[in-house]
Structure formats: structure tokens, C-alpha cells
Amino acid sequence: MKGIYLHIPFCRKKCDYCDFPSTAVWDQELLGDYLRALLQDLKASLPTWQDYTIYLGGGTPSILPPGLLEKLFSTLKDLLPHPLEFTFEANPESITREKLEVLAQAGVTRLSLGIQSFNDRHLKVLGRVHTAKEAREKAEMAREYFDNLNLDLIFSIPGQDLKTLKKDLDTTLSLAPQHISAYSLTLEGTTPLVRRTERGELIMPSEDQWLAMFLLISQELKGHGFRRYEISNFAVPGRECLHNLIYWENGEYLGIGSSAVSHLNGKRLFREREPKGYVDQVLKGKSPVVEKEVLPPWQKALETALVGLRTTRGIDPKAIEDRWGVERNRLSPILEELQAQGLLEQVGNRWRIPDELLPVANEIMAKILD
Ligand code: SF4
User: Fold this and answer.
1) Rounded distance, CA 97 to CA 60, Å?
2) Model pTM?
3) How far is the CA of 369 from the centre of ligand 1 (A)?
4) Whose CA is nearest to atom 3 of ligand 1?
5) How far is the CA of 127 from the centre of ligand 1 (A)?
6) Rounded distance between C-alpha atoms, residue 245 and residue 3, angstroms
7) Average pLDDT, 10 consecutive residues per value, the chain (370 residues)
8) In a 3-state reduction of DSSP, which class is residue 64?
9) Is residue 11 within 6 Å of ligand 1 at its C-beta?
10) Do domains 2-247 and 297-369 have the same CATH topology?
């Protein structure tokens, strides 16, 4: 199975923690041009894959008006008629009943809603533009149209404690989604959140508080029938996100749109980062690919091991060595050494990070790189 990712980089406002390739600087003309370029680029790059997923992410894809969504979906139906999964990312402030109807009609099978928190104070700290009330209402509305709904949450927000996190989890569970992503807030780049914490206006939770929140999420979600299948992702069994599983297997995917990354035939391709630059390149008939990276086999094998260890399924070192043409038994000794230190466990022919060590997964991965 392979993945097709389409990037819509536009947002109503840049969130205070956001270091992703997205922008709040756009107008209707740019939206129209961007969509034209996106579809042109897709047509020119389209692989002949049989089994594929589609993921429309951002940015905020739900910012597109219903007319542009219809245009996008009608072309996608011609080009990619049989996706195994079709995910659309939406945010509460811009998803509407009218748009949900368009999505459902177009064959979107999975809606991912960027809730982040149901607490207005925390939403404000994050610089989100929606309110808790709007988040609840839109999640309820989305459930009327989709039986495969993901709610995105953020934890470890300045000012958050176990009580407010528990409330967020209770509200999330009461909305009966099939999938929940719970990401830790991180300080990246030079975002307003980074500057405010540097000035001492906001204080990030301590390591102990972070750990207590991480454990509370695991306990609550598992107690309500969710299975963790990746460090930050939980699903009702059978509702794991197929598209994201491709990334965690270091599989092949085509990324279309500004700043999109592809992984094809062992190469990584990077597209023009700025939306306007991307539109210019594509509409002038030029390739928007600005960089190609070819990693040596051992690097590929290591990369595959690292992303795979994020999943609870873990990795099969022999399969990884064979896939990238690395000599046998190069990866296993590294894993055995970490097992001797109690940092990895072996289940059959697969290796994984034990559940109780998932909070320190990054440190374990750093040891593999060492
Ligand atoms: S909505 Fe998402 S992509 Fe857009 S600014 Fe906020 S965090 Fe970034």
C-alpha cells in the first residue's frame, strides 16, 4: 500500500505553537491558483498504484470554500477513483455542515478534526481561533457524516494539570470518535509560544507533570477500548490510520503541494516551500521539486527502524535489512544490546519498545543512532 498526500498550506491564523509549513497570508485568488497548481502537479506526477490511500492535510484543508472543494474532489475522483482510505483534515472554525456534505458525497472516508483542547484558556494559550463550544459542536456535527472520526488533542500545555486534562479526555470520549491523536506540545523554532516561555510569561509543565499526563492519557484511552498503536495515536481496533502506518513503515508516498515531501524508489523529494513560489513553478510548467535526497542503504535501514519503533507493533530487523539490501545481522546486534539494557523487548521476530518505556522512546531512539 502507498500513500498520496495533498497539502493545503492555508490557515485562518497561525497558531502560537505552529512551526509547520502553513500560512495565514492568502486571498481567494491565491486559493484558486494554488488548487489549479496542485491538481496540475498531481496529474503530472501520478503513479500507477493499485492500492493507495489519500490524505488531504495542512494547514487547514477545511478553509477551502465548498465550490473549490467540489472542483478538487471531482478531479480526484477521475485521477484516484479507488482509495483504500481517504482522510480529510478539518478545523472547527472552518468546517461547516455544507462542507461536511460535500466531503461525504465525495467519498472521504475519514475526518480528522483539530480540536487540541476543550478548554478555552488552553486554546487561548495555543493561539487557536476556535472555542471549546465550537469544537464540541463541530465534532458532534462531523459524527453525523463520518463513522471514522479522529480527534486531535494536545497535552502538556502551560497551565494544564491532570484535572483539566482529564476533563479534555472525558469530553473527547463522550464524542465517541474512533481514533484519537494526543501529541505533546513542543517548543519549536521561533514561534510566539517559544518567545513567551523564554520571557517567563508561560511555564511549560515539568518533566514529572508531563509523565503524569502521558500516563493519564494511556490509562483513560485504554480503559475506554482504544488501543495505542503508535506513541501518540490510539484507535478502536480496526480504525488505525492506514495512511500514517505507511509513514511509520517508511513506505512509499507521493507528496503534492508546497513543502510536500515524497518518498519514492528510495529517494526523498522536496517540493518548493512557499505556496506562491510553488504555484509559479507549476503553472509555468516547471517541476516544483527543489531537492532530491538519496540516502545510502544503511541510513535507510536505520531510518526504517526508528520510525517503526514508534509503533507498538515494532520492527522485524531481518525484513528491514533485506528491504534495503543491507548485509544480514547488522541491525540485530544493536537491538540486542538495547535489549540487554532492558530498553527493548522481542516478541517473536519483532522488536519493540516496552509500553512502560514509551515515555522515553526518544532517548532510546537516540541510543540506536549513537
Ligand atoms: S491550524 Fe494547524 S497548521 Fe494551521 S497554524 Fe494552526 S497548527 Fe499550524
Assistant:
1) 16
2) 0.97
3) 30
4) 59
5) 10
6) 10
7) 98 97 96 98 95 98 97 97 98 98 98 98 98 98 98 98 98 98 96 97 97 98 98 98 98 98 96 98 98 95 97 97 94 94 96 97 93
8) coil
9) yes
10) no
Rounded to the nearest angstrom, the distance between the alpha carbon of 330 and the centre of ligand 1 is 40
**For cell 491538481, what's the residue?**
39
Q: Which residue has the cell 526523498?
A: 268
Nearest CA to ligand 1 atom 8: 18
Query: Cβ(22) to ligand 1 under 6 A?
Result: yes
For the chain, give percent helix, strand, coil, nearest 5.
45, 20, 35
Ligand 1 atom showing the smallest separation from residue 14 Cα: 5
User: Hey, where are the domains in the chain?
Assistant: 2-247, 297-369
Question: Which of 140, 17, 101, 114 is CA-nearest to residue 58?
Answer: 114
Task: Of 249, 19, 217, 236, give the one whose Cα is nearest residue 110.
Answer: 236
If one counts every other C-beta atom within 10 angstroms of the C-beta of residue 182, the result is 25
CB 365 within 8 A of CB 306: yes
b/e burial code for range 139-178 (CB count within 10 A of at least 16 → b): beebbebbebbbbbbbbbbbebeeebbeebbebbbebebb
Q: What is the pLDDT of residue 370?
A: 84
Residue owning the nearest CA to atom 2 of ligand 1: 59
Q: Which run of H or E residues covers position 67?
A: helix 66-79
Distance 241 CA to ligand 1 centre (A): 20
All residues at 6 or more sequence positions from 62 whose CB lies less than 8 Å from its CB, including other chains: 88, 89, 90, 91, 94, 95, 99
DSSP class of residue 180 equals E
Query: How far, in Å, CA of 346 to CA of 350, rounded?
Result: 6
Q: Which triple of cell numbers denotes residue 182?
A: 494526543
Task: Extract the C-alpha cell encoding 215.
Answer: 500516563
Question: What's the grid cell of residue 180?
Answer: 484519537
- Ligand 1 lined by 14 (C-beta under 6 Å): yes
For residue range 277-332, list pLDDT tens digits in order: 999 999 999 999 999 999 999 999 999 999 999 999 999 999 999 999 999 899 99
Whether residue 14 contacts residue 24, with contact meaning beta carbons closer than 8 Å, is answered with yes
Are 119 and 86 within 8 A, CB to CB?
no
CATH assignment, 297-369: 1.10.10
Residue range 2-247, CATH number: 3.80.30.20
